[in-house]
Amino acid sequence: MTLVAASLWSVPAEQRPATADRLAAAGLRRWHWDVSDGGFAAAGGFDPDEAAELGARTGVPGEAHLMVTDPLDRVDAWAAVCDRVIVHVEARGWRSALDRVVELGARPGIALSPGTPAVLPPDLPDGTAVLVMAIVPGTAGAAFRPQTLDRLDRLAHPELGVDGGITPELARSCAAHGATWVVSGGSLCAAPDPRAWLDSVG
């Protein structure tokens, strides 16, 4: 079964609580909290307080996706409110940040941008998840890059995710190529029937 994590990045701030309630009622099992500093990726996303508030409101756990130049500076705050923290291998000091995630008792994850070779870095901590970006980080609403499926095949990792442009059809295609979880934003959040959306993937 493919796990779906929802990103509220593209939802206007005033609509986020209602959208979060709607998705949780539809059976959503995971949030994906995007974080950007405006340098590594376009500015936007969430802060830990907002993520904690929406997580508590819905009873749905979440993961943090740090699209930032210096992830180590952000790890402590996010590990306090998320059970997994994902850092980009293109970011400065990403290994130190990943080690800190483990020290704090959260699950580690790495993200690979589209231009980064689909090769796992050596000596990753046990249980490290791998998130493959199907769009350039921070470009919510961009189209899914078809070559992402080939990248999934090459990585063949036991905990493999995809983020960017995910529709139900693409989620199923990603699962067929080894993805165990997907991140969806606009498609899921705007779905007339989010329960049907989720059921069609799982």
From TrEMBL:
It comes from Cellulomonas denverensis. GO terms for molecular function: metal ion binding; racemase and epimerase activity, acting on carbohydrates and derivatives. This is Ribulose-phosphate 3-epimerase. One of its GO terms (biological process) is carbohydrate metabolic process. SUPFAM superfamilies: Ribulose-phoshate binding barrel. Keywords: Isomerase, Metal-binding. Transmembrane segments: none annotated. It comes from the Bacteria. InterPro entries: Aldolase_TIM, Ribul_P_3_epim-like, RibuloseP-bd_barrel.
